[in-house]
TrEMBL record:
It holds the Pfam family Mito_carr. GO terms for molecular function: citrate:2-oxoglutarate antiporter activity; DNA binding. This is Mitochondrial DNA replication protein YHM2. Keywords: Membrane, Transmembrane, Transmembrane helix, Transport. It comes from Linnemannia elongata AG-77. Solcar repeats lie at residues 20-102, 212-300.
Length: 308
């Protein structure tokens, strides 16, 4: 999802900057909405369930999620929180990461390094501008039922948390979200660009300068997204900090440090990697949508507006 305003880097070429307009920013929102409404939210629900209920296996997770609402159970937290989050964070990422990558590429660093820096900056911008509250409420929706019951509306739950804990309460875990987003998109964009460079090298010198095909972009994005699950411990900590499940001995006021200690004490090292399989799928799908799909849609939009 790097190039909202910087074109995909081809080694030896100068990055070109395109005019930033509302249509360009809308690409990020559109692709993020598509991603979350299709496979994104089911992957998110399964991943979050396993990270919060670390004693469950995949089969048990599927069974419990289905019991909570059938097929709709796999889309818990999508309306309104995931949609609000997707429609804003995509635009923030596509703008911030693209601007940063453009500057980085023209400073002379490699496409891999530029993608890494752009992704990290875009991920941080997402976390602190649009994601804190929505990510927290998505996790609340997925984990709250044992504590508050399914008949309490999501807005009532949000209101109660705000009355009880204020702004800090509804943004609980935002620093963990920031670390996750920074490492997520730094890895996804950086590794995707590295995969693109590798594909060009395999093509040979005669065609290395040509743009990647759609399938090559999808393959590079899938590689970048899939390999980026190395930071799963950060995601498990984030889920635990935002979870509404009550367990004896669990710290009331969670920080990243005492949350990590709690996970280690209760589940050991393997606890930090619960939910890795669905997150692998989620990472691939998000990166395909936001990098390969985002690049293709941005190209279409830019070419269309260039004619007017």
């Amino acid at each position: 999802m790097t190039v909202a305003v910087a074109s995909t880097a081809i080694p030896g070429a100068t990055a070109t900057k395109k005019k930033v307009n509302f249509a360009n920013l809308g690409v990020g929102a559109a692709m993020n909405m598509f991603e979350v409404t299709t496979l994104g939210q089911p992957f998110e629900v399964i991943k979050t369930h396993l990270a919060a209920n670390r004693q469950d296996n995949m089969a048990t997770a599927f069974k419990k999620i289905y019991q909570r609402g059938g097929i709709a159970g796999f889309y818990q937290g999508m309306i309104p929180w995931a949609w609000i989050e997707a429609s804003t964070k995509g635009a923030v990422l596509i703008f911030a990461a693209g601007e940063i990558e453009y500057v980085a590429l023209n400073s002379g660093i490699s496409p891999f390094a530029a993608g890494l820096v752009g992704g990290m900056g875009g991920g941080l911008a997402q976390a602190y501008t649009t994601m804190g509250f929505c990510t927290f409420m998505k996790t609340v929706e997925i984990t709250r039922h044992k504590a508050t019951g399914p008949n309490v509306s999501t807005f009532a739950v949000a209101s109660e948390i705000f009355k009880r804990e204020g702004i800090r309460g509804i943004n609980k875990g935002v620093n963990a979200v920031a670390v996750r987003q920074c490492t997520n998109w730094g890895s996804r964009l950086g590794l995707s660009r590295l995969a693109e460079e590798t594909i060009r090298k395999f093509r040979g010198s005669e065609s290395s300068h040509l743009p990647l095909t759609a399938w090559e972009k999808i393959a590079a994005s899938a590689i970048g997204g899939g390999l980026s699950i190395w930071n799963q411990p950060i995601e498990v900590i984030r889920v635990e900090m935002q979870s509404q499940l009550k367990t004896a001995g669990r710290p009331e006021k969670m920080t990243i440090a005492n949350c990590a200690r709690w996970i280690w004490q209760t589940n050991g090292l393997k606890g930090f990697y619960r939910g890795s399989v669905p997150r692998f799928g989620l990472g691939m799908w998000q990166t395909i949508c936001m990098v390969a799909g985002g690049d293709a849609l941005k190209k279409f939009v830019n070419e269309k507006y260039a004619k007017h």
